[in-house]
Design goal:
Elements: H1 12-23, H2 26-38, H3 43-55, H4 74-78, E1 95-97, E2 102-109, E3 114-118, E4 121-124, H5 125-128, H6 133-139, E5 143-148, E6 156-158, E7 163-171, H7 180-185, H8 189-192, E8 195-202, E9 205-212, E10 219-222, E11 226-229, E12 237-240, E13 250-251, E14 256-261, E15 265-270, E16 275-277, E17 286-287, E18 292-296
Antiparallel strand pairs: 1-18, 2-5, 2-17, 3-4, 5-15, 6-14, 7-8, 7-12, 7-13, 8-9, 9-15, 10-11, 10-14, 16-18
């Protein structure tokens, strides 16, 4: 594998676009977007939802609530639930399911402690996992899948397999957009951005599921802790959870684990030799939650 981390030279217009993202007041824009998305402004909110749905060709037929007027705020619409039968979960104890609707950014094996970010460009597993040496050592040599959620996608995130939560880590960081263009041109994008790292014990060994923040991603939430941000801490925060007992948090395959208020990226990391990713999961492949992610071994 070529571990060249140099980026191809962008055109003048592309350089302007990249520079603009560096100069944008990311947190101010995100805070404003979050405030606006939470407003319950009746007709105005319903009109905004309708325009957004038309622009991004939202499929109302699969939504549990199928009209703009069914939602009090834009955020309520954005994390809309789907009908129970909209995303069938792949059968089989040895089959894992995709965690989210979107497109594959990249996938593959973690070699020399590096994950592929975009064609020919890599970032560090240790940086992604907030320099957790023990966890990095455990996941080195494993497989990974990065899923990009565009604005039109369903924005709840689900479990690829059954698992018991052992740790959650909030990592403060930048809020660069995570669209494919910037993934090709901003070094270490996913390990620079704000993120929530969730570590699970599973039948396939340790699995790490990471929710990555982005510009206008006003907040990320989990089903066990609610909204993680805001407020935004300037320090890494760590929560540990028991493996057994009344306080243990166990989720089943296909069960919801979190959500984005406005879009972003999910990264899944598995231990070495634990699973084999489905061969079709190459960059650009469309994903639907519940379809095959991979199989054991």
């Amino acid at each position: 594998m070529n571990m060249n981390t140099s980026y191809s030279r962008p055109t003048f217009l592309q350089r302007l676009k990249i520079t603009a993202h560096y100069l944008l007041p990311q947190f101010l824009i995100t805070r404003a977007a979050g405030w606006l998305a939470e407003r319950k402004w009746g007709f105005f909110s319903h009109t905004l939802i309708a325009l957004f749905a038309k622009c991004y060709r939202i499929n109302w037929n699969e939504a549990d609530k199928g009209n703009p007027s069914d939602y009090d705020s834009f955020n309520e619409f954005f994390i809309r639930r789907l009908k129970d039968d909209a995303r069938p979960i792949i059968d089989g104890d040895n089959a894992l399911c995709l965690p989210a609707d979107g497109k594959v950014s990249e996938s593959g094996i973690i070699q020399n402690g590096l994950l592929l970010q975009a064609k020919g460009h890599y970032f560090s597993l240790s940086d992604l996992l907030a320099d957790d040496e023990a966890l990095t050592a455990k996941m080195t040599g494993g497989s990974f899948l990065t899923t990009y959620l565009s604005p039109r996608d369903y924005h709840r995130v689900h479990m690829p397999c059954s698992g018991t939560l052992r740790k959650m880590v909030y990592v403060p960081g930048e809020l660069f957009s995570v669209n494919p263009f910037l993934a090709e041109h901003i070094p270490n994008l996913f390990s620079r951005n704000e993120r929530v790292i969730c570590v699970f014990d599973t039948p396939f060994g340790t699995m790490v599921q990471i929710l990555v923040g982005a510009t206008v991603t006003a907040s990320m939430s989990t089903v066990w802790a609610g909204v993680i941000n805001p407020p935004r801490s300037q320090n890494i925060q760590v929560w540990d959870y028991p493996a057994e007992g009344m306080s243990a948090i166990r989720l089943e395959k296909g069960e919801e684990m979190g959500a984005f208020r406005l879009g972003s990226t999910v990264i899944n990391v598995f231990e070495a030799n634990a699973i084999t990713l489905d061969a079709r999961l190459q960059a650009g492949c469309v994903t639907r939650m519940g379809e095959l992610l991979g199989t054991a071994g």
